[in-house]
Amino acid sequence: MTDSSWEKSISEPESGMVPTGEGLPRYRKLRRRSVVATSLVALTPLIIMVIINFYQDKEAYIAESRYAVSRILSNTKRNLEFIIEERRSALSLILNEQPYQKLNSPGGLKSIQKNLNNSFGGFVDLGVINSEGIQTNYIGPYELIGRNYRDQAWFNEVLVRGVYVSEVFLGHRKLPHFVIAFKHEIDESDFFVFRATIDMSLLSEQITTTQLDQNTDVFIVNSNGILQTPSAFYGEVMDTMSIPVPKRIQLVETIDEFDENSRVKTRGFSYIKGTPFILMVLRQHENIYVHWTYHRSGIIWFLLLSIVLILIVIFYGAGHTVKRLRELDRRRAKIFHNIEYTNKMATVGRMAAGVAHEINNPLAIINEKAGLLEDLIKHTDNFPNSDKFIAITNSITNSVERCSKVTRRLLGFAKRMENKVETIDLGDLLREVVGFQSTEVKHRNIRIGYNIQENLPTIQSDRGQLQQVFLNIINNAFAAVDNGGSIDITIADADNKRIAITVTDNGVGIPKEDLEHIFEPFYSTKGEFGTGLGLSITQDIVQKLGGEIVVESEPGKGTDFKIILPISGRGIPYQG
Amino acid sequence: MGLFRVLLVDDEEELVTTLQERLSYRDIEAEYSLTGAEAIQKIREKKFNIVVLDLKLPGISGIETLRVMRSEFPNVPIILITGHGSPETTDDLPKGAYEYLPKPINIDKLVAVMKEALADK
């Protein structure tokens, strides 16, 4: 066997496969939680913003509809009123200017109709009815002279009001018309009624020119809901509108929204002055979601893209964070592992040294006895079979030599297990060691207090061994305190050549009968959980580093472990 | 009367008696002590040219024995023997010894070192 082969095989730590604690599910859960929480925080404002945008857009859409309805309503109303008023004024002027005789003569009336149609248009017929209700003159497509209107409602209305505008009716040719009629006094005792039938298409044309799109409907309806002009939504002239007639509000344009067959419509209506007509403007809303998604596709795409990007970032970010956490855990576990390994190797080293020493003594005796045999044989004359005896003693001493090579190698190995001296800041070292336990500190709500004297010198010692020492002491303190307990670490000058580190806990303390034995090997109070070697090894290391460890404890109050270390190198015995 | 007189100090009686006998074959007169105290007493009573001292002794340690002998008899060279290995394998060897020999000891090497120590004196 070569000198290094077996040493190498045990001095290499098992690299790579270091356990990372609770395994994969823990990290998956952590990742899932972090993804969900971050997504909620990142996406909620975005989604709220989009919802707000949707409602703002809806409001804007309705406002736009109202504006359009209002505009059409007032324009159309003005036009219609103008057309009706124009004709009424013309008829009124004729009544006042033309003598009754001209009106009542067929030739005179015909020329009046001709002039009216030339100037204004739409006058289908003209008629004169006397106070008895008898039609005395008529110019138009029918033979109506002599007809009696006295019992008809419109005739009585003219008598009461003086001026009358009728609802729409269909004549013999099924064309919609309406009538304007005036009562005119001939003298104090007599009067006549002047009646003009006007083609409704005058008004319908006015309306159709204003119609904007298939979602807009403009029409005239009377107070019974009978359509006076064709409607895109509700049918032809004289059909009954399927929605209720709005209540009369005096000459005021009214705009509101209502639902019909689950579609929202903006409705504007206005009574037309001096007529039974109600002008209605309806605008059917597009589906608000369809409208929104169509008009705000930019925002929606932006939203979707943002969500995708955010989710990608969160997903990979969380993955990265968890991966790093896992890596840190792995490294921490590895450090622990290495410390444990170093500790094991140090123990192996010490054992090896002990074994070598114990074997070397009997080996030395065997060697001398064999040597003495050889001496005796050589100094005795004619010793029988002396050659053979010498060969035997040589074989023995050679074997001893082989054994001693092994023990020397063991001792050499033990020496390599010994310490490397470097400059150490004890405060940093203690924080680092406590840092190994940060999860437990947090989890068990343990308070760690540091009381480190200022301007402490660094010391020369073995970092790995000191880590081992303090890890043992601090682990013991953790085991001793309850959840929520406290551990204080005090570092101060012991004298000008040494520094004292005191680890004080407020835990269960150590009973007096145990206190005398705690540094003895295999003495454990932890039952099957402890090897009983922790403090023994700790003391061993401290002494080897030229330091001293002392313990004070009071059951129920806590324990002080005080470790005194030389500032430089080793070999300064502790006097106190 | 041999070449010189040597005091062997080791708590292993089998070792020192055997060494004593073997040295006598090489004209070296050897006496032995099993403890440090006995050895110090012996060297005070009788003149020895050289001391062979084991580091690990019961009672007064080898190191302490070495210190006393060096201070009282600075002209007597001391050869240390130790089961703990040689200067190559341990840092713990104390100062003041002429030479360190690891156990098991090669008698020829021991004799050579003793002669060399006495020649150097």
Structure description:
The complex is a heterodimer of chains A (576) and B (121). By secondary structure, chain A is α+β, with helices and mostly antiparallel strands. Helices cover 50% and strands 19% of the residues of chain A. In chain A, strands 1, 2, 3, 4, 5 and 6 form a 6-stranded antiparallel β-sheet that branches. In chain A, strands 12-14-15-17-16 form a 5-stranded mixed β-sheet, with helices on one face. In chain A, strands 7-10-9-8 form a 4-stranded antiparallel β-sheet. The longest helix of chain A is centred in the middle third of the chain and has 83 residues, at 297-379. The two termini of chain A are 49 Å apart. The relative contact order of chain A is 0.07. Chain B is α/β, with parallel strands linked by helices and 121 residues long. Chain B is 39% helix and 20% strand. In chain B, helix 3 links the parallel strand 3 (50-54) and strand 4 (78-82). In chain B, helix 2 (36-45) runs parallel beside helix 3 (62-72). The longest helix of chain B is centred in the last third of the chain and has 14 residues, at 107-120. Chain B is globular and about 30 Å long.
Supply database-style keywords.
heterodimer, A: 576 residues, alpha+beta, six-stranded antiparallel β-sheet, five-stranded mixed β-sheet, 14 helices, 17 strands, 50% helix, rod-shaped, disordered N terminus, disordered C terminus, B: 121 residues, alpha/beta, 39% helix, 20% strand
Radius of gyration of chain B: 13 Å
* Structural classification of chain B: alpha/beta
Report the largest inter-chain contact: A-B, 28 and 23 residues
The number of distinct helices of chain B, counting runs of at least 4 residues, comes to 4
List the helices and strands and how they pair.
The complex is a heterodimer of chains A (576) and B (121).
Chain A: H1 5-11, H2 24-97, H3 100-104, H4 106-119, E1 123-130, E2 135-139, H5 153-161, E3 163-165, E4 169-170, E5 176-185, E6 191-199, H6 201-210, E7 216-221, E8 254-260, E9 263-271, E10 278-284, H7 288-295, H8 297-379, H9 386-416, E11 422-424, H10 426-435, H11 438-443, E12 447-452, E13 459-461, H12 463-480, E14 486-495, E15 498-505, H13 512-515, H14 534-544, E16 548-554, E17 558-566
Parallel strand pairs in A: 12-14
Antiparallel strand pairs in A: 1-2, 1-6, 3-5, 4-5, 5-6, 7-10, 8-9, 9-10, 11-13, 14-15, 15-17, 16-17
Helix pairs in contact in A: 2-6, 2-8, 8-9, 8-12, 10-12, 12-14
Chain B: E1 5-9, H1 13-24, E2 29-33, H2 36-45, E3 50-54, H3 62-72, E4 78-82, E5 99-102, H4 107-120
Parallel strand pairs in B: 1-2, 1-3, 3-4, 4-5
Helix pairs in contact in B: 2-3
